[in-house]
Amino acid sequence: MPRRLLACLTMAACVLGMGGPAVAQTDQAAGPGWMGQQGAAQVVIDGSGQQTLAQIEQRFMLGESEPADAGRIMPTGGNTAVWYRLALPVVSVPTPLVLALPHPGMNRVDLYRPAADGGWGVERSGDSIPVAQWPLPYLYPAFELVQQPGEVRASYLRVQHSHPISVRWSVWSTRDFQESGKRWHFFLGAYVGLMALVILICMVNAYVLRDSIHLYYAAYVLFITFGQLSLTGLAGEYLWPGSAWWNDVASNVLPVTGVALGHLFLRELVLERGARWATGLMLAMAAVGAGLALGFLFVGRDPFFTISGPFYLASFAVYLGAALWYTWRVPRVGLWVLAGMLALLAGAVFPVLRNMQMLPVSFMTQYGAQLGAAVEIPLLLIALYLRSRGQRATQARVGAMATADPLTGVANHQVMLQRLAHLLEHRPRDPGAGVVIRVRIGNIHDIRAEYGLQVAQMALVHAGACINQVVREGDTVARHRDGDFVLILQGRMERDDISTIGQRLIARGLAPSGVLPPGAVLQLKVGIAAAPYQMQDVEALLLALEGVVTELAARPGKALRFVT
After folding, report:
1. Which one of 3.30.1360.70, 2.60.40.2380, 3.30.930.10, 3.40.50.300 gives the CATH number of domain 23-177?
2. For the whole model, what pTM was predicted?
């Protein structure tokens, strides 16, 4: 799945033309439609952000411009505006085109086009206005235009942003842009579907496995998903197209909240095995992330945007450290966690470095986080499944220890009392049902005296195995606290059938085994209480059976007797 997603996203990058070659003027009649190519342009910088188009034209005429370089990080931020004079393709017939800036989250983009009356027409896009009011509501700013044959007046592009970025644009034929948009929306829709499936699985696992860590992970995936949708522009296009403020702030609030929840998730993961200082560090990082999110919400982008870059890098270091430590302690699960974290960090570091003005806009700086998350999230889901399965197995073993005799593995004394009480409680409804057999190893003291304690314990284990070989499904084999075994048989049984079971028990004890030393056998004494019982309670029943096996142990020639 991650390999296919990587191929799809790479294809999308090619289709969108991010990082495509710069081209000179092109004639539409000479070949097929453009595939997101960027044409030549000149650029001037307006530091005040107040200059008019006429003033900017004058500056271009005076030669104050320089060739535009798509890889250069422009000094946007504050009031600064960057103006581009575009060289659009030369065409021989009126040609519908789309001019797109494949940078979701750009604050304001104005396109000035020559008007028929000699003036200028202007269209505005970007996060400073609601997506619903953009001239072409889309993932990122885009403008539809018709390029006329012989058009000699240049078009101008004015860009403002909250922080320095490299500015790329692409020119498409309308047909190619629409086809590319369909493919890109399909890829993003598949991404949303994958994340929704993961969240649903987490919710089901939290309920079925009774493990709260799946809720932490579901919250983490939810905010990471919405953060990625806001960064790609899909959320602005479909979820909140009428809110310019939230569309602008969501791309900061949601990702930083997701990272903070990632610290809480990792803390929950390592809590049982982690040091107090490590879990405290993750709590502190989560608190910092929450503070940044509140700062973005109630104060604004500055100065929190500058702080968010180092916070992300520090979070990545904590994530990686926690994953390495957990892998060292729990390799079977930890390796999946480590693989997921490495995938996330490998993709997410690019947009963080771009925001810190260390890298220009490119495919990886814009979509690396989505790609990393698409690989990370299923890997962590596998890790959580393995963790929960291991915990359930451990809990099952602990539960079995609470109800089983630690030496022989049969039910313990407490379970025996509960089953006997249940049997006697149902006696009024079916007086003839149920048989209780008490089994004692008559020669256990001789075995211990001759062979030692270890062999005597092996004899007890062997006796439990012999009894288990004659029981049916639904019957209970338990060990009394004084060392005897108690066998509880369900249902109605004839006296001859009960005697047969007792004789089989005695025979199995006398048979040679590979467990005991040569010549050592078990002399089992079997006391049987068959319904209807004369005893009124569990204690009386056990005392009656104890008297029988004690009497049998004192008489070497006898091994089986019914309670009278």
Report:
1. 2.60.40.2380
2. 0.69
